[in-house]
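ERR on first pass: missing label on line 2. Operator R.T. fixed the label and resubmitted. Corrected input:
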Amino acid sequence: MEPHWLVRPATIRLLWRAFIAVLALAVIAGFFVSHGDHAGPDSIPAFGAWYGLGACAALIALAKLLAMFLKRPDGYYDDVERSDD
Amino acid sequence: MIDLLHPGLLLVAAGFAAGPLRGRARGAVVLGAAAAAVAITLALPEGVLWRARFLGFDLVPFAVDRLSRLFALVFAITAFGGGLFALNQKHRFEVPAAMIYAGAAIGVALAGDLMTAFAFWEVMAIGSTAVIWSAGTAAAYRASLRYAAVHLGGGVLLMAGIAGHVAETGSIAFERLALDSPAHWLILAGFLVNAGAWPLSAWVPDAYPEASWSGTVFLSAFTTKAAVYVLLRAFPGAEILIYIGLVMVFYGIVYALLENDMRRILAYSIVNQVGFMVTGIGIGTATALNGAASHAFAHILYKALLLMSAGAVLHATGRRKCTDLGGLFRTMPLTALCGTIGALSISGFPLTSGFVSKSMIGDAAMAEHLMVVWYLLAAASAGAPLYAGIKYPWFVFFQKDSGLRPPDPPLNMRLAMLLFAALCIGLGIWYAPLYALLPFPADYVPYTGAHVVGRLQLLLFAGLAFFVLLPVLRCTLTITLDADWLYRRLGPALLRAASVALAAADRAMRRSVRAGTAAALLACRRGASGNRDPSRPRTSGGMVLWVAAMLAAYLIAYYT
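pass 2 clean. output:
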C-alpha cells in the first residue's frame, strides 16, 4: 500500500526545506522590526533564535541528567500498591 | 432580579438534579444549566449581592468584581464545553459530580468572605475526588485516595490559617493579605497545595491522568485555577511567589520532557503554565496581574482542548502511552487538528490565545527590571513547544505508524473540540473582549513587530531543537520519580520496616518472659521438695500494715 503522502520521504525533505526557509525568514525579519525606545536583550540581533535554541538544548540536558537518577520502569509502583488491595 | 441567581449554586443544583437522569434528559439539564451560568455571569452587576449573619460573622456569599467575574465566566464556559464533550459518558456519577465541582469553583470565585470560600473549596475537593473515582479502575481509586488526602491536608492548613486570621483581626472579609503572621503563611500554604506548587505538585500528574477520558477535561480547569484566583485576590505582589512560580515552570518542563503517558505530559504542563501565572502574581504590577488573570483564562480553554483531544484518543484506542500511539492523523484528522491548535496555543504562537496572554507576564518582568526572571521566563517560553507544544501532537498523532486506525470521536465530542479550538484562535485574534474583562484597565498591545518576530524566533528554533534532538527525546516505557515517592514508597517502606522491627522485639520479649516463667516454676518445684515452701501464705496482718503505710505516704504527699 502506498504510504500517506505526509510520511513519504520526498514530502519530509520538502517540509525540512520549507522549515529552514521559515527559520531564515524569522531571523531576517528581526532586523526590520522596531524595538521602540527600550533596549532590552530582545533587541540584540536574532536574540530569540539563539536563545531559544540554547534554552532548549540546556533544558534537554537538564532533563537527561535528572533522568539518570529518577527514571524507573513503567510498573514501578504497581507491585507494591496492588498487594495492598 | 438577576442578583438572586448564583451561577455556582445553579450548577451545584443541576449536578444533583442530573444524578438520577440518563441520556438526553441529563444532557439537557447539564448543558442548559451551564449555558445559563455563562449568561448570568456576564449579566451580573458588580458589588456585594448577598449578605448574611452567621455565628456572629458578616458573610458575603455572593460578590462580583472584575476579577471574580473573569474566573466565574471561564469556569462556566468550561462546564459547558466539558459537559458537551461528556454527553456520551455512560458513567452515572461523573458528569453530575463534575457539575457540582464546577459550581463550587464558581462559588470560590464569587465568595466575598473567607468562610464561604473555604466551604466551596472543600466541596471542590469532594467533587473532584468523585470525578476521579468515576473512572472505575483500581488505579484511579488508589490515585483518588492519595488526591483526597493531599487536598484534605491542604484544607486543614487553610482552615487553621483562616481561624488564626479571624482570631487576630476579627474579620472574615476576603481581601488582600500581607505575609506578616503565621496565620497568613498557613493560608498561603493551603492555596499553594491546590495550585500544584512544588514539592506538593505530584498530585497533579498522579491523579489527573487516572480519570476517565472526559473526567480529566473537568479536572484540568478548576482546582489549580481556583487557586490562581485566590492567590490573585489575597497575595498579589508577594515576592516569594516569583520564586515558587519559576520552580513550577521548570519542574513542569523537565518532567514533561521525560514522560511517556500523553495525559501525564499534559498534567505536568498544567504545573508549568500555572507557574507562569504564580510568577506574574508575585511580580504584582497591574500588567503582571492582568497577564496572570488572562493567562489563566486562555490556559483553561487550550488545556481543556488538549485534554479533549487526548480524551478522544483514549476513548477510541484505550491507550495513553506515547510508546503505544502514533500516526493517528490518518484516521483522526479533526482530533489531530484540534490537538495541534491547543498545542500552538500553549506554546503562545501568534494568532492564538496563549500569545496575547503570556507575553504580558514577561513584559511586566522587564518593566520592573527583573531581568533574571525575564530570561528564565523566555527560556521557559521556548521550552513550552518542546515538552508539550510539539511533543504531544508529534508522538500521538504523527511520528511512527502505530498501525492503529481509530475514527474521529462522536459528534458531541467533535463539536466540543471545535468550540474550544475556535475560542483559542478567536481570542488570539480578537483579544479586545478578553482584555475588557481583565481586573485592571489593559492598554497592552500584543501584536507589535518586535513581539511577533521575537516569539516566532523563539518558537521556531525550539522546533528546530526538537527535531534535531529527536533521537534523545524518544519516549521510553518509564516513569520519573516525583515527590509522591515519599508517600508511595518511602512512607510504606518505613512502616513495613517498623512493623518488622516491632514483631521481632515482640517475639524476643515473649521468649524471655516464657523462659523466665519456666525458670521460676522450676525453682518453685525445687523449693517445694526442700524445707522452705515459697508458696506459703503471708499473714494478713503484714498486708494491712503495708496498705496503711501506703495510705499514710499518699496523705503526706497530698497535703504537702
